[in-house]
């Protein structure tokens, strides 16, 4: 009998036909609760939408309002076979170095002279290409300067489609990471790249050639205004050709950027402004 009583109580709690209550509440009570939560969540959604609207009014579609960046930009090299930054190949084994040549060919395709002439300007070298806005009137889209791969000469892939790899005189390409508004160099002195072997390999690296001459990033490619504002921007490049690096041995190399106003490294990233990689050229004895 006790079980029948408990069962009846549960049935009455779920639906009481005498008081017409569902789960202990009448229809009007349920209606008021639902109305309260509906108004409450509409208010929260409206408050969130208003907050987002006010925040979005402070943003610029073409330039970040705040930039939490390093004072020294990073550097990358091409070709890049994997995350280990190693260039290892055998001169007699075409398959081991052809992948590097193909990677460079693909990377440099957007720098073909015919492509650059169509989309970018021929700028005055050795001076910044500034394109300021006029108050609230945005000067967008902004123009960009031509960087023709012919500037890389022996490392352009035009005169040697193998980029020196088949001769044991490989080329690598270096570029700086893009930083909006950065003006590298000072007093007309352009930033430039230098490469050298780590201390233990200083006698293995041999002679180097830089393209453009002295490994400079010309000032006319700066400042960079952002991907949306400067859609056709072509990052300047520096090529380094290793003329007589020691074969059959690991050579650990570091390249760095040099400029009057770019500090070397930082507390946040000691590798900022430099890139290290291993080069090994094998030959069959």
From TrEMBL:
Quaternary structure and interacting proteins, as annotated: The sodium/potassium-transporting ATPase is composed of a catalytic alpha subunit, an auxiliary non-catalytic beta subunit and an additional regulatory subunit.
Pfam families in the cross-refs: Na_K-ATPase
GO MF entries: ATPase activator activity
Record carries keyword Ion transport: yes
Localization annotation: Cell membrane; Membrane
NCBIfam families per UniProt: Na_K_ATPase_bet
Keywords: Cell membrane, Disulfide bond, Glycoprotein, Ion transport, Membrane, Potassium, Potassium transport, Signal-anchor, Sodium, Sodium transport, Sodium/potassium transport, Transmembrane, Transmembrane helix, Transport
Protein name: Sodium/potassium-transporting ATPase subunit beta
InterPro entries: Na/K_ATPase_sub_beta (IPR000402), Na/K_ATPase_sub_beta_sf (IPR038702)
Record organism: Knipowitschia caucasica
Main location group: membrane
Membrane-spanning residues: 30-56
Membrane topology: Single-pass type II membrane protein
């Amino acid at each position: 009998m006790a079980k029948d009583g408990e069962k009846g109580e549960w049935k009455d709690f779920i639906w009481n036909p005498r008081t017409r209550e569902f789960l202990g509440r009448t229809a009007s009570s349920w209606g008021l609760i639902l109305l309260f939560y509906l108004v409450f969540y509409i208010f929260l959604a409206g408050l969130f939408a208003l907050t987002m609207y006010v925040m979005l009014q402070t943003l610029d579609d073409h330039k970040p309002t705040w930039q939490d960046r390093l004072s020294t930009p990073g550097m990358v090299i091409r070709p890049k076979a994997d995350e280990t930054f190693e260039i290892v190949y055998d001169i007699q084994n075409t398959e081991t170095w052809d992948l590097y040549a193909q990677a460079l060919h693909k990377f440099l395709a957007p720098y073909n002279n015919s492509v650059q002439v169509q989309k970018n300007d021929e700028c005055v070298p050795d001076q910044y290409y500034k394109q300021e806005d006029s108050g609230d009137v945005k000067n967008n889209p902004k123009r960009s300067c031509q960087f023709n791969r012919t500037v890389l000469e022996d490392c352009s892939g035009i005169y040697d489609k193998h980029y020196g790899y088949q001769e044991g005189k490989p080329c690598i390409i270096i570029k700086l990471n893009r930083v909006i508004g950065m003006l590298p160099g000072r007093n007309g002195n352009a930033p430039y790249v230098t490469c050298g072997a780590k201390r233990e390999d200083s006698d293995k690296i041999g002679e180097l050639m830089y393209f453009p001459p002295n490994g400079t990033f010309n000032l006319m490619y700066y400042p960079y205004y952002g991907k949306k504002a400067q859609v056709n921007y072509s990052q300047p490049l520096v090529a380094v050709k290793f003329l007589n690096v020691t074969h059959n041995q690991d050579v650990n190399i570091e390249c760095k950027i040099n400029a009057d106003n770019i500090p070397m490294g930082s507390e946040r990233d000691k590798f900022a402004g430099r890139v290290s990689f291993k080069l090994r050229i094998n030959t069959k004895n």
